[in-house]
Amino acid sequence: MMNEKIKRYALFWGCTIQFRLPWIELSARRVLPELGVDIVDLPFSCCPDPVSTKAIDHKTWLALAARNLTIAEEEDLNILTLCSGCFETLRMAQEEMRDKKIKEEINSILKETGREYNGKIEVIHLEQLLYERIGLKKIEDYATRPIKLRVAVHVGCHFTRPSNILKTDDPLYPEKLDELCRAIGLETPDYPDKNLCCGVGVGLVDRDIMSKLIIRKIKGAKMVGADAIVSHCPSCILNYDTGQYILAGSEMERMPVFHYLELLGLAIGIDPDEFAFDEHKIKLPDITF
Amino acid sequence: MQGMSKKRRIVRVGDISEMIREKEDFIMIELEELSRQVLPCLQCTTCASSCPVFQVDSEKNPRRIIYKLSRNDFSNIFNELSLWWCGGCYSCQEHCPQGVALTGIFFKLKNLAFRSGERVPNLIIRNGGELASGFLIRYNDRIKKIRRELGLPEIMQPSLDEIKKILQKSGFFDLLEISRTLDDE
């Protein structure tokens, strides 16, 4: 249908999508080619994650990220990532290694593997691909079946922050994902705690606080009559979808969670049977076009 | 290089205490550097009010760490709860009107805690241990089955040999070895 080639990308899936939420991978493999994107799979390791690995040792975190970057460099491919955590790690590593001394130090570690980081490739996030490379206008044109849902847009922390390095959207009031949602017919009301962290990071040490953050988020979304949460961060989606499912006995009504690509896929005319909606823990609402 | 031939070093008890002292000095120098970084802080409390964790549990206050650093008070700094309850969301850092890079400082403190053999959260050590397998999650039969049913390809496996070499060279395995968990207390 829309076969204007945008580009080939090495797709950096990350641990959360590949192991915990493969239905997001399925959506991406189905939807991205329709937008003219060729996906190349490469043997990347964990990015590594910007919360726990970085807490243990900064240098190791940088070296493993650099190794992943060299794998794409070898193929002369830019990286496209669907995970905000992987995006933050890879982008921050690139920025830090612009400092020659740091690059040399990391390369002296990589030398053990016969690799060398050169800083030749680019790393972009799915939202940047959609918003900056493909563009709102085209997304709107492709969306021949606009979706009538009222959604609470959730961007999460790691796609925008730290903003001095990531430079993606306003770190305190991001709106580009809202615009992408409106381009496919969705209603995107503002809501209390819209920019609240999902809590997956603190979940490493405290499930109780994590649950409180999930409940606050859902309350805010309910308050404005949202039908569902829409996000593009796998960790946030995992935390909201599975998190609510686990919070048995809580008084709140459950709020379903979509990945943006699922709704985009439906809007551009892909058959609902081609997605894995059954894999969501929280039952999804009926969708009218 | 010539003249740099390896000398076998005999480690004596005196040397070990010297090594410990060197390490302690290193930690102290790093902490003093962090103290300098928080000098612009006016204790306005914006960091605390923007912290998602503080918003639901006021025991975990990131401002306390910054306050201690600003006063060169390093006592129990690695035991401050908000340090380990920090999920690295960068909210405080983005909101800080004085431009203090709080989240970066917290990560630095966490790294120093690992180097000093201080008590750290169990799950962070666990995730660190998993890295040698290439991912944070094990590729088990259940995951393989779900992926197969969805028609997805096998997950491509990275070179574990390379990853282990990196973890060895960077000293990561040594850090995990000396780590002690908070949960033991």
Structure description:
The complex is a heterodimer of chains A (289) and B (185). Chain A is built from 13 helices and seven strands. Chain A has 289 residues and is of the alpha/beta class. A four-stranded parallel β-sheet of chain A has the order 2-1-3-4. Chain A folds into two domains: 7-125, Glutathione S-transferase Yfyf (Class Pi), Chain A, domain 2; 136-279, Rossmann fold. Chain B folds into two domains: 13-116, Orthogonal Bundle (Fumarate Reductase Iron-sulfur Protein, Chain B, domain 2); 119-185, no CATH class. Chain B is built from eleven helices and two strands. Chain B has a two-stranded parallel sheet. Chain B starts with 12 loop residues before the first helix and ends with a strand. Classes of the chains: A alpha/beta (289), B mainly alpha (185). The interface between A and B is large, with 59 and 63 residues.
Task: Please write out the topology.
The complex is a heterodimer of chains A (289) and B (185).
Chain A: E1 7-12, H1 14-20, H2 22-31, E2 37-40, H3 52-56, H4 58-75, E3 78-81, H5 84-96, H6 100-110, E4 123-125, H7 126-134, H8 136-142, E5 151-154, H9 163-166, H10 176-183, H11 207-223, E6 228-231, H12 234-246, E7 257-259, H13 260-267
Parallel strand pairs in A: 1-2, 1-3, 3-4, 5-6, 6-7
Chain B: H1 13-37, H2 46-50, H3 52-56, H4 62-70, H5 81-84, H6 91-95, H7 102-116, E1 119-120, H8 122-130, H9 141-149, H10 160-169, H11 172-178, E2 180-181
Parallel strand pairs in B: 1-2
Helix pairs in contact in B: 1-7
Comma- or semicolon-separated keywords:
heterodimer, A: 289 residues, alpha/beta, Glutathione S-transferase Yfyf (Class Pi), Chain A, domain 2, Rossmann fold, three-stranded parallel β-sheet, B: 185 residues, mainly alpha, Fumarate Reductase Iron-sulfur Protein, Chain B, domain 2, 2 domains, 11 helices, flat, disordered N terminus
**What helical percentage do the residues of chain A reach?**
40-55%
The CATH topology of the largest domain in chain B is Fumarate Reductase Iron-sulfur Protein, Chain B, domain 2
How many structurally independent domains of chain A?
A: 2
Number of strands of chain A: 7
- What radius of gyration of chain A results from the CA coordinates? 19 Å
In this structure, how is the largest beta sheet of chain A organized? Answer: 4 strands, parallel
How much of the sequence lies in strands of chain B comes to under 5%
What string, H for helix and E for strand, traces the elements of chain A in order? Answer: EHHEHHEHHEHHEHHHEHEH
